[in-house]
Amino acid sequence: MIQRGIEPDLFIYSSLIRGLCNSSQWKESTTLLNEMIKRNIPPDVVTFSTLVDVFCKKGMLSEAQIIVDMMIQRGLKPNVVTYNSLIDGYCLQSQMDEARRVFDAMVSKGCIPDVLSYNILIKGYCMSGRIDEASQLFDEMPQNGLIPNLITHTTLIRGLCHTGRPHAAEELFSKMSSHGCPPDIITYSTLLDGFCKQGHLDEALALFQSMKKSQSKPNNVIYNILIGGMCKAGRLKDAEELISCLSVEGF
């Protein structure tokens, strides 16, 4: 383009950087960013945020922070997309205190977290076994004008199950419809798996029966979870009945 006398603009540079990032060519994308600056084509928030996101996904958090600092030095304010990428990056590396620091910094600088911000942090806490902090964030959402969505509920239910609290997960599950987001098949499978792994097989069967009456009909994954749980507990008759149902359903 340049050899033909066509000067690339912000849109072209940003598109090229996004394409390079999508192809995991982060070094080339950084080179292009520096070229933009040298050619007096100021990158915007979207351009910087694209780079922050790719660095975070690659675990290159120091490089991501450098990009954020560069944004601020150039008079640009990171937006919720930028902060969400940073929070997610720290969560992926199990650096939950740093993730929370970024979340709090976002709030203190007047950038309002969205549902995705909370979902990312809740998932990070759940993956790190810090379920009480995840639950606290969940409870904070309505206070801040945000409604937990299906992903929020399912993530916390999974976290409660993984930390040996399936009945707390069941309580949250029972409130989902009243919260405006009825459980889907992933939510059902998550709670069923939690019940089976904790040995609460009667509760698992009861949930299975209620699922059959819901809009989320059992699939082969649901049957496999239940059959595996019954076999592991030595309840072979229940397993055989489930296998018979599986055949009738055509799986």
Structural account:
This protein is mainly alpha-helical and 251 residues long. It has 2 domains: 113 residues, Alpha Horseshoe (Serine Threonine Protein Phosphatase 5, Tetratricopeptide repeat); 124 residues, Serine Threonine Protein Phosphatase 5, Tetratricopeptide repeat, CATH 1.25.40. The chain is built from 14 helices and no strands.
CATH top level label of the largest domain: Mainly Alpha
Structural class: mainly alpha
| Rg (C-alpha, Å) | 23 Å
Uncertain segments are none
InterPro entries: PPR_rpt (IPR002885), TPR-like_helical_dom_sf (IPR011990)
Pfam family, one: PPR_1
GO biological process, one term: mitochondria-nucleus signaling pathway
Keywords: Repeat
Question: Quick recap of the structure?
Answer:
The protein is mainly α. The protein is 71% helix and 0% strand. InterPro entries: PPR_rpt, TPR-like_helical_dom_sf.
State the main characteristics.
251 residues, Serine Threonine Protein Phosphatase 5, Tetratricopeptide repeat, mainly alpha, 2 domains, elongated, 14 helices, 71% helix
